[in-house]
C-alpha cells in the first residue's frame, strides 16, 4: 500500500515525498503509521513554505524586506555586545570602576602638587585663614585618594561612596559651583556614577523571601541604577560642542540619541557600549592634554575635560556590566 503525502494547499515536494514513500517514518505500513507519515510530510512542506517566505517578501515587498534586514543588523550588533560581555565579564567591572573614579584620583593628586595654590585660593575666597584652608585641602586630598583606594580594592565600598559624596558636596560649596551650571551638572553626574557604584556594591535585598519577584522589584538598587543612568545624561550634556562643523553636529546627534537610550533603558547594553567606543575615540582625539606643554593653561583645561569624559565612560561601562536594572524599558519588555 502506498503512502500519499500530498494535501490541498500544501504542494508537492518530489524529493521528500519519494524518500517518505521508500522509507516510511515508523516501520510497517499500517493505519497508525500512515497517519504519522502524513503528519511528517505536512510538517516538512509547511517548513519549506516558511523558508521561501523571506524570498517572496524580498521580491514582492522591498520595504518589508529592508525592515527585516535592519532587524537582522540589530540582532547581530546585540549578539556582538553579548559576546563582548561574556569575554570581559571578569575584567569589565574593574575597568569601569577605575575609569569612574579617575576624576577623584586626578583631583586628589593635584591637591598634593598644588597644595599652596589651593590653600591660597580658599583663604582668599572665604577669608578663613591658612589653617582652615589647609584643613580643607587635606580633607580633599585624603578623602579622594582614600576613597579611590577603597573602591578599587573593593573594601568598604559603600563608606567610600558616601565619603566621595561628601567631597562633591564640599567642593560644590567651597568653589561656588552652585552658580555655575556646567560645573554643577558635572558634579551631579559624578554623583550619578557613585550611585551606580553603590548599586553594584549592594546585594539584591537580602531577606527570608529573597528571590520573590516583588521583593526584587522594590529593591533600592533598581532606583539607584535609574538615578545613575539619568544623572550620566547631565555630564554628557556638558560635553556637547555647539558649533557649525559637520563633525560636531554629527557627534551631538548620535551621542544624544545613544545617551537617551541609556537613560530610558532601551537596548541599554548595546547603546552604552556603542557610546563608550564613541566617547573614547573623541576623548583621545580632542582632549590630548599630553601634547600641550604643562605651563600652558590649555594643558589643565584639556586634562580636566579628559578625566571628566573618562568618568562618563566609567559610568557607561558600569551600565554595560550591571545592565539597566528593573526600572527600564528592557525589563518591562520581558513582562510584555
From TrEMBL:
Pfam family, one: SURF4
Organism: Alligator mississippiensis (American alligator)
Gene Ontology CC terms, in alphabetical order: endoplasmic reticulum membrane; endoplasmic reticulum-Golgi intermediate compartment membrane; Golgi membrane
Protein name, per record: Surfeit locus protein 4
Family from the record: Belongs to the SURF4 family.
Spans traversing the lipid bilayer: 129-152, 159-178, 222-240, 246-266, 273-294, 306-327
The keyword Zinc belongs to this UniProt entry's keyword annotation: no
Keywords: Endoplasmic reticulum, Golgi apparatus, Membrane, Protein transport, Transmembrane, Transmembrane helix, Transport
Amino acid at each position: 500500500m502506498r503512502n500519499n503525502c500530498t494535501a490541498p494547499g500544501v504542494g508537492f515536494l518530489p524529493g521528500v515525498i519519494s524518500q517518505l514513500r521508500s522509507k516510511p517514518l515508523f516501520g510497517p505500513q499500517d493505519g497508525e503509521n500512515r497517519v504519522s507519515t502524513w503528519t511528517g510530510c505536512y510538517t516538512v512542506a509547511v517548513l519549506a513554505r516558511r523558508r521561501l517566505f523571506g524570498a517572496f517578501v524580498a521580491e514582492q515587498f522591498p520595504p518589508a524586506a529592508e525592515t527585516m534586514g535592519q532587524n537582522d543588523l540589530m540582532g547581530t550588533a546585540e549578539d556582538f555586545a553579548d559576546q563582548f560581555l561574556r569575554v570581559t565579564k571578569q575584567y569589565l567591572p574593574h575597568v569601569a570602576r577605575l575609569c569612574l573614579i579617575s576624576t577623584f584620583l586626578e583631583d586628589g593628586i593635584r591637591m598634593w602638587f598644588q597644595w599652596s595654590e589651593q590653600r591660597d585660593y580658599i583663604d582668599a575666597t572665604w577669608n578663613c585663614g591658612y589653617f582652615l584652608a589647609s584643613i580643607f585641602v587635606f580633607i580633599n586630598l585624603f578623602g579622594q585618594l582614600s576613597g579611590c583606594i577603597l573602591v578599587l580594592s573593593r573594601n568598604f565600598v559603600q563608606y567610600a561612596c558616601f565619603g566621595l559624596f561628601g567631597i562633591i558636596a564640599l567642593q560644590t560649596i567651597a568653589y561656588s559651583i552652585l552658580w555655575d551650571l556646567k560645573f554643577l551638572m558635572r558634579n551631579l553626574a559624578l554623583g550619578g556614577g557613585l550611585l551606580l557604584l553603590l548599586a553594584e556594591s549592594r546585594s539584591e535585598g537580602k531577606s527570608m523571601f529573597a528571590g520573590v519577584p516583588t521583593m526584587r522589584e522594590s529593591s533600592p538598587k533598581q532606583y539607584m541604577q535609574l538615578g545613575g543612568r539619568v544623572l550620566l545624561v547631565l555630564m554628557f550634556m556638558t560635553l556637547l560642542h555647539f558649533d557649525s562643523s559637520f563633525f560636531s553636529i554629527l557627534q551631538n546627534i548620535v551621542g544624544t540619541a545613544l545617551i537617551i537610550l541609556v537613560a530610558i533603558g532601551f537596548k541599554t547594553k548595546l547603546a552604552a557600549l556603542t557610546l563608550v567606543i564613541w566617547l573614547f575615540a573623541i576623548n583621545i582625539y580632542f582632549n590630548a592634554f599630553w601634547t600641550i606643554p604643562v605651563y600652558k593653561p590649555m594643558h589643565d583645561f584639556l586634562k580636566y575635560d579628559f578625566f571628566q569624559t573618562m568618568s562618563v565612560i566609567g559610568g557607561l561601562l558600569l551600565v554595560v556590566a550591571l545592565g539597566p536594572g528593573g526600572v527600564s524599558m528592557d525589563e518591562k519588555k520581558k513582562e510584555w
